[in-house]
């Protein structure tokens, strides 16, 4: 059973401040799902090539605008999602952005083909991609720029140095990391302040517990991608479904509510192409779980998985 850093007996707070100056509601939106690719619709999100813009562009624009109407303060994207077209879509839908809206993007992964995600942390490449993201998002400064993956072929000091230079030039407000271990996070912090970590984490995938607890202790936001558990945990009649029935919520809302209780540093960024699912996910902020229900969910433990790492 996980030992929580936050007391689970009361409803968790609904706002988190990233980097000391970016307050956001504690459920954001991950825009990766607003992409497509060659071939049939994938069975699960991690199988999506994230290669083309969405087939129904107007529906995607409607969803993004609805997200902001519902109070979403943080939208996450990356330069590699549909080769930059995901950033362009966000700008088309939402620019000029409301003052409260934080658009976070990621750089540091090249896409030679629909099936390839290649870490590329050469400083000149990172600076080029940041400049392209600024253009596509139509902003002069990116509020939160995250290194999409650490490149093992490039010294960490050089990778973060490129982002720090952009920060010094006023083109980046805060720097974050994605899919890192605790050791890597500590090493990065020794080089430059880190405002956020975006790792895969949910009820069934919990190998970043140490990162979450460290983030909470050091004022770092933790943005779990794929935050809604799949597999046996989400099956009809399973533990999540049982708790959801007791709480008057859906299983997806229950999984998100558990994350909000797991740590005060967590801001889930569930993605969807459905307005109905978007509204369902955001309503998880109002779901109340008892300490006993949270304990039951926490005791489920992680599931073994052979799914490929999500982008």
UniProtKB/TrEMBL annotation:
The keyword Oxidoreductase applies. Keywords: Oxidoreductase. One of its GO terms (molecular function) is oxidoreductase activity. One of its GO terms (cellular component) is cytoplasm. It comes from the Bacteria. Pfam families: Aldo_ket_red. Gene3D superfamilies: NADP-dependent oxidoreductase domain. The keyword Oxidoreductase applies. Residues 26-300 form the NADP-dependent oxidoreductase domain. PANTHER family: AFLATOXIN B1 ALDEHYDE REDUCTASE, ALDO-KETO REDUCTASE YAKC [NADP(+)]. This is Oxidoreductase.
